Fold this sequence. Notes:
Blueprint: E1 5-7, E2 10-12, E3 18-23, E4 32-39, E5 46-52, E6 57-59, E7 67-72, E8 77-82, E9 91-99, E10 114-115, E11 119-123
Parallel strand pairs: 2-11
Antiparallel strand pairs: 1-3, 3-8, 4-5, 4-9, 5-6, 7-8, 9-10, 9-11
Amino acid sequence: HVQLVESGGGSVQAGGSLRLSCATPGYTDGFYCLGWFRQAPGKEREGVATISSGGLARYADSVKGRFTISNDVGRNTLSLQMNSLTPGDTATYYCAAGRRRVGDPCLLGADFGSWGQGTQVTVS
């Protein structure tokens, strides 16, 4: 599996914005899924947003309209723009990546295989 590296976490007041980035080396061709997941203390990991190699994005209901996932293939960088943050968004955020067969969906509940070390987002 490929080691992914996140950046961009931090502390922000409610209503503020943060942008997370993740280096995704090797995911520039073929069929693959990329995604952002998060885990708050005492809670299970949940899928936040995913994007396929074809650009199809999926979002958790809790972040729709506030978060935007994007993939810059040329820079091997996956991003998550987070706006209108609330304390409920406080968690460790992880990026993930994995190869897929043609037509496989990039589900929010899937384990893509390769993970980053996580970056903390705190909203107060």
